[in-house]
């Protein structure tokens, strides 16, 4: 794979990497015929992000290892996010000094290479170690979401700025009457003396599109959402929000002729029995033991023809060729918790499929066992 980026697109790439760094610790780099895909997933697999840069984004884009290899997807890999982020750490410097960026990746090379061509003939070469990997694939369908909002980025940026940086989750509430509320989510065991609740109300006329069929609310991590909003504001792209009942993933998208962005966040599942006992102003309670996991999960699929944003099954009934294994809970260290991606809370996990090469598929065709993404709650 070889690609050349010039002008302001170098800074746009850097901002995309900054946004992805809010989600995961590794970045999956995959050259496709439809463009260069940069993806990541957090450790608890409750957040997934993908930036797909179309060929028109580049001055030169060659997904294969040679010009005669354009019919096949190129070699894919993953690198540490910290290493890749260090190249684009200073965004003002990229804009002022870098004239061109050359990215190359080959299955025969021992390094993933990024070269920055700066003013006065200075060339900065970064060789990063990488690992071969399968394609990271999240299967979702925005058409299955009952509710959708279309908002200018500045509206939501101005809204979340009122929440403290230490705020881990936020609850988005929407009503057919046209009221949208963002409210900080607090744990039931939070001491009253340490409790600070931030709530912000928006009206329907502040959104470019408003489709809410019934009153609902979903709770998701704020850290990853801030990262996407930062990119949306810098690129001045409207944000699409697709969500459903609590427990189903919330999908945030940005669309442009040369760029397609998806952020998929797991949401907390609400306990109906406790909700009935609470008044309209009280904080909803959540039940993690009695959830019907199979009813909300999205199936993993091992296929050579997977595509980003592939249609999710319309119902919890899946084809017989897909098998399910027992779900387990990830062990986590509460002391290492990162605000915005708390593993001790059991968010509804997302499913990620593995897109294997033909040779790998032959090896795996003898078994039908698939691994499901795990819930993000630690041991209790």
Overall description:
It is a single chain. This protein has 380 residues and is an alpha+beta fold. Helices cover 17% and strands 30% of the residues. It is built from eight helices and 21 strands. The chain has helices at 9-21, 81-87, 91-97, 153-160, 222-235, 272-277, 293-296, 358-364; strands spanning 2-6, 26-32, 35-41, 47-53, 60-62, 77-80, 98-104, 112-118, 123-128, 131-132, 135-138, 147-151, 169-174, 179-184, 199-203, 209-211, 216-221, 239-243, 250-256, 259-265, 352-355. The strands form four sheets. A ten-stranded antiparallel sheet has the order 10-6-2-3-4-20-19-18-12-16. A five-stranded antiparallel sheet has the order 5-1-7-8-9. Strand 13 (169-174) and strand 14 form a beta hairpin. Helix 1 packs antiparallel against helix 3, helix 1 (9-21) packs antiparallel against helix 5 and helix 4 (153-160) packs across helix 5 (222-235). The chain is elongated.
């Amino acid at each position: 794979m070889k690609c050349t980026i010039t002008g302001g697109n170098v800074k746009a790439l850097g901002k995309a990497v900054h946004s992805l760094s809010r989600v995961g610790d590794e970045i999956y780099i995959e050259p496709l015929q439809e463009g260069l895909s940069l993806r990541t997933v957090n450790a608890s697999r409750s957040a997934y992000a993908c930036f797909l840069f179309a060929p028109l984004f580049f001055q030169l884009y060659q997904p294969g290892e040679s010009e005669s290899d354009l019919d096949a997807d190129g070699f894919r890999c993953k690198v540490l996010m910290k290493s890749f982020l260090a190249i684009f750490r200073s965004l003002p410097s990229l804009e002022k000094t870098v004239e061109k960026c050359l990215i190359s990746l080959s299955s025969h090379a021992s390094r993933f290479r990024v070269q920055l061509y700066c003013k006065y003939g200075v060339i900065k070469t970064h060789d990063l170690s990488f690992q071969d990997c399968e394609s990271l694939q999240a299967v979702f369908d925005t058409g299955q979401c009952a509710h959708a909002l279309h908002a200018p980025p500045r509206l939501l940026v101005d809204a979340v700025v009122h929440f403290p940086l230490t705020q881990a989750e936020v609850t988005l509430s929407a009503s057919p009457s046209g009221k949208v509320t963002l409210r900080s989510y607090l744990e039931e065991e939070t001491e009253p003396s340490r409790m600070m609740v931030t709530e912000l109300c928006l009206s329907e006329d502040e959104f470019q599109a408003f489709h809410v069929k019934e009153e609902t609310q979903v709770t998701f991590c704020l850290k990853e959402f801030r990262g996407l909003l930062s990119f949306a504001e810098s690129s001045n792209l409207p944000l699409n929000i697709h969500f459903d009942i609590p427990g189903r993933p919330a999908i945030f998208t940005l669309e442009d002729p040369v760029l397609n962005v998806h952020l998929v966040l797991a949401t907390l599942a609400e306990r109906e029995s406790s909700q009935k006992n609470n008044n309209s102003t009280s904080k909803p309670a959540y039940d993690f033991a009695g959830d019907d996991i199979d009813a909300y999960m999205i199936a993993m699929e091992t296929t050579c023809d997977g595509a980003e944003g592939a249609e999710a099954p319309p119902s919890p009934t899946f084809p017989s060729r897909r098998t399910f294994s027992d779900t387990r809970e990830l062990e986590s260290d509460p002391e290492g918790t990162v605000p915005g991606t708390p593993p001790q809370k059991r968010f509804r996990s997302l499913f990620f499929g593995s897109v294997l090469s033909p040779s790998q598929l032959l090896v795996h065709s003898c078994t039908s066992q698939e691994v499901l993404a795990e819930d993000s709650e630690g041991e209790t």
